[in-house]
């Protein structure tokens, strides 16, 4: 059963400029495993985190540090949840995730489907 669906789109240049301007933003938005990725990949992961939040109904109080998006060579990306995001997912009965991320022509996008 589908519990929720989320989608998000990010302008890569605008996102990169924001990361460069706002001290500490990279550390607030991304886990250590994500921080050193290329700007387009960071924008795609941010879109994925936004899509995940939307699939959960956008509850307040979730930490971006509690979701890590991993690349899988030859497969769909996977998301590792912990803390506040895991608690929100469990409260809604989410047992698995389907995630798609992409970046091309200056745009990063993501779709997240929460399945119960």
Automatic annotation (TrEMBL):
Its cofactor is Mg(2+). Mg(2+) binds at residues 8, 50. One of its GO terms (molecular function) is holo-[acyl-carrier-protein] synthase activity. Keywords: Cytoplasm, Fatty acid biosynthesis, Fatty acid metabolism, Lipid biosynthesis, Lipid metabolism, Magnesium, Metal-binding, Transferase. It comes from the Bacteria. Its EC number is 2.7.8.7. Its main location: cytoplasm. One of its GO terms (cellular component) is cytoplasm. It is found in: Cytoplasm. One of its GO terms (biological process) is fatty acid biosynthetic process. Residues 4-90 form the 4'-phosphopantetheinyl transferase domain. InterPro entries: 4-PPantetheinyl_Trfase_dom, 4-PPantetheinyl_Trfase_dom_sf, ACPS, Ppantetheine-prot_Trfase_dom. It catalyses: apo-[ACP] + CoA = holo-[ACP] + adenosine 3',5'-bisphosphate + H(+). Belongs to the P-Pant transferase superfamily. AcpS family. Transfers the 4'-phosphopantetheine moiety from coenzyme A to a Ser of acyl-carrier-protein. This is Holo-[acyl-carrier-protein] synthase. It comes from Ruania alba.
